[in-house]
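Tokens in:
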């Protein structure tokens, strides 16, 4: 199906309002600038509290969103924001964390991992792994159930969530689910060539908000050594063994250059016995999640994620 007119109008508005040169950088900056201007905010959550997670590299800022702190412990989604590993923080994705907590009725801990180019790979994935383990170890303090944890991320954050889901197989804690929203799954193959195994990198590499040029920029900023692209912590689909990972929900968008690698990852997980569900948003684009007030189509991406978190992380009904 063609790109719907509302989505095209939003993309054109964001691109036209971007500073010169930003089109070859990380587009999330223009997106979140627009959100601030339009006062797009997430729903209210009963408890929102800033945290600092200790790590060998220093404290990792984080934020707890708890929809029912006085009730019995609920499950928790550890959330990693998008932004191409170079942009984003707790505030840029506050509306998404609020949305997840309010509508799933599970707690959310959003993680402000270190960003490139000041902190290159593997700093972000180290912070994501450390934060996930910390949430499990401090579950009682947070009012959550360590037996019902999920990792969730959009874009670069989706790549981090996928990497953490592999890392915890050996280092714990067990996860109930991994939710990957149009994730960055493979940093190999840039610059993109005609023989790419992911045709969407070419078919939707321009004019659909996220561009292949922007992804090339991400790779250059995030990886100090191009050879690191083959490391599964940077490119989860390159892992030698995917078995034993948590059940996965992968949300892809039709007009996203990352569509094919996201869907390939779901197939690769399923091939080794990991339950994996793919939801492709027809007419959707990268960055659409959380844009309900601007883009009604985004609800098609949000609802399956919320349903999975609600069904997986909520306490069993007595």
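Residues out:
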């Amino acid at each position: 199906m063609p790109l719907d007119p509302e989505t095209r109008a939003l993309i054109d508005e964001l691109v036209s309002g971007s500073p010169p040169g930003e089109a070859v950088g990380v587009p999330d900056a223009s997106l979140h600038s627009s959100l601030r201007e339009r006062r797009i905010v997430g729903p209210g959550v009963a408890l929102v509290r800033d945290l600092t997670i200790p790590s060998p590299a220093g404290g990792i800022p984080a934020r707890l969103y708890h929809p029912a702190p006085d009730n019995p412990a609920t499950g928790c989604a550890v959330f990693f924001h998008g932004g191409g590993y170079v942009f984003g923080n707790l505030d840029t994705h506050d509306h998404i964390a609020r949305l997840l907590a309010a509508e799933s009725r599970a707690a959310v801990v959003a993680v402000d991992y270190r960003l490139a180019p000041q902190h290159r790979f593997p700093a972000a994935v180290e912070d994501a792994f450390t934060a996930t383990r910390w949430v499990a170890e401090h579950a009682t303090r947070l009012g959550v159930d360590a037996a019902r944890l999920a990792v969730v991320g959009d874009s670069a954050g989706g790549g981090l969530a996928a990497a953490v889901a592999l890392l915890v197989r050996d280092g714990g804690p067990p996860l109930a689910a991994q939710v990957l929203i149009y994730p960055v799954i493979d940093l190999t193959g840039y610059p993109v060539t005609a023989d790419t195994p992911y045709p969407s990198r070419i078919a939707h590499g321009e004019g659909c908000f996220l561009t292949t040029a922007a992804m090339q920029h991400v790779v250059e900023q995030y990886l100090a050594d191009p050879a690191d692209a083959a490391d599964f912590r940077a490119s989860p689909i390159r892992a030698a063994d995917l078995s034993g990972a948590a059940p996965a929900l992968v949300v892809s968008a039709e007009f996203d250059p990352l569509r094919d690698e996201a869907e390939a990852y779901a197939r690769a997980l399923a091939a080794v016995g990991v339950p994996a569900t793919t939801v492709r948003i027809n007419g959707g684009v990268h960055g659409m999640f959380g844009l309900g007030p601007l883009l009604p189509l985004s609800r098609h991406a949000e609802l399956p994620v919320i349903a999975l978190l609600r069904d997986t992380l909520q306490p069993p009904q007595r």
